[in-house]
Amino acid sequence: MIQLPSRSFVTGTAVFLLSAAVLLFIRLLPLKGGIMGWPGPDMTLALILAWVLRRPDQLSAPVIVIAVLIEDILLMRPLGLWTAFVLMGSEAARLREHRWRDQPFMVEWVRVTTLIGLMMLGNRLVQILFVLPVPALGQVILQFLATVLAYPLVIFAARWLLGLRRVGRPEGA
């Protein structure tokens, strides 16, 4: 018999999708008036990693794919490329979540920084390999730094605004 998803899973997925939609809406708003400035952080990526490391039971791989694929379409990125790297990175984090759970936040931050860097590097290498349009290296590095620096803010916002807390030992084991 097919088991229905738990209330926690459905609520967490709905809150994540709503949060991702709000972040995408804010990203699409024309706030700069045609002036190209520094690239902002990839808040959706930071939210996905924060969610997977806090509540891996609430965020499934298809939900991540849907959220990032819609972002790929609306931001006119190569269709599915960044989605594949985000899925691989989030699943790598999900597999290691139980070992990272008891570590201090600084260790988590360094690991997430490494993961984001590898994801962006892999994305860039595939774009170069298949002769796709590649953004300027300086812009990519600035977005990487902005995303890494925004990660603690995303953790804070997810905890206090969305109520996203780490899975405890009895619940996650």
Summarize the structure.
The protein has 173 residues and is an all-alpha fold. It has 7 helices and no strands. 70% of the residues lie in helices and 0% in strands.
Explain this structure.
This protein has 173 residues and is an all-alpha fold. It is 70% helix and 0% strand. The chain contains seven helices and no strands. Helix 1 (7-28) runs parallel beside helix 3 (61-74), helix 3 runs antiparallel to helix 4 (81-100) and helix 4 (81-100) runs antiparallel to helix 5. The model has no long low-confidence stretch (mean pLDDT 89).
How is the secondary structure organized here?
Elements: H1 7-28, H2 43-54, H3 61-74, H4 81-100, H5 105-129, H6 137-160, H7 169-172
Helix pairs in contact: 1-2, 1-3, 2-4, 2-6, 3-4, 4-5, 5-6
